[in-house]
Amino acid sequence: MGFWSNRYIAVAIGGGIAAYKTLELLRLLREAGARVVVIATAAALHFVTPLTLQALSGHLVRSDLFTPNESDGMDHIRLAQEAELLIVAPATADLMARMAGGHGDDLLTTALLARQGPVLLAPAMNSAMWSHPATQRNVAQLQADGIHWVGPEYGALACGDQGQGRMAAAEQILEAGRRLLSPQSWRGRHLLITAGPTQEELDPVRYLSNRSSGRMGWAICHAALRAGAHVTLVHGPVAMPVPWGAEAVAVQSAQQMYEAVLQIWERQEQHALPLSAAIFTAAVADFRPARRQTRKIKKEESGDQTLTRLTLAQNPDILATIAARANRLTQENRPAPIVVGFAAETQTGAESQAALRALGQKKLAHKGCDLLLVNNVWAEGCAFGSPTNQVTLLHRSGHEETWPLLSKEVVGERLLDYLTTLFV
Ligand code: C5P
Description:
This protein is of the alpha/beta class and 424 residues long. Helix content is 35%, strand content 22%. The longest helix has 17 residues, at 254-270.
């Protein structure tokens, strides 16, 4: 069952052009299995019609406080109170002013006054209106009242201007809602994740790399952000956008990833939020071309028919370096982050599971980390880029767990839950 399955969500729509984006939010919520009730202000219905809202939410839409007897038998104020989450999108400057002032002059503001559960606001307006002192005063007031926010974003605005005031995308509002409703088991904790492949340049147009998609690291990053963690994500070239809210460092080569991770390690020692854990999912190239050619290598220049010989140099092992540093802290009786590695192996045959574990145990000891998650990339559903993974977790204490084939999202959640059991 998905996260939104059967959750009761109220969506309130203010009168702004961004209301058209809220239609997409309604669609996403319904598609994810949520039950949705919509309240629109009178102004909102100038931008989107009741018929559209009804079709997308599956219920009649209420706007007027004084309409007697609802024909679908739903009391919208009660529903807005009982919903797990009330999302206001778009939240206009006027609506925020009325909320900050405690008004109850229409159905929506009345429902908001009666609401005790979480409220998530997605503001949308012209950038001058957003930065106006009156609006900022209202923002501060609403923040003090415990209202939550997503956006507004910087970008092109409906009025033709460029600036801050764009409503967050529907996917982002959904994600913000999910974070609000998720248990905050990592709040106040800092997690470092490496993800994706590295590219080792041969010449200005060619590189050595691997098939890593970055999906496992991304899944852990999403899960950690939802659980309230501060996440630093050091990643190689991947096709996915960085999860919103993560502190991302984009690198290309293993050497760059090594330097970025070391810098984060050194910074965290002085950081107000030291690392609680470091998870290394990146598929780091073990070798790089010993010499990067400054000009494109030409096949004619190799002379005869033999191939140009590639000389490789070894890359530093980032995981082993950080594990050694963490172990040193532990020896000094200082708090150290939990260090987690991933190992993708290629075992075949009937004994593959036993061989995989034996390989994993050896690697765990060799790398010096606390935990290693091993998987067989040839096993069903475990290929590079696959949305699923089947892992065996090995702890340095000898504790082992073999998990079933799960979505990478669930593997990420389980791993984070497991790590919380190790925090002292
Ligand atoms: O040795 P192997 O590549 O199988 O080890 C895999 C684990 O080590 C992964 O967690 C990977 O992110 C990490 N690693 C690393 N730096 C390297 C090679 C691997 O951090 N140079």
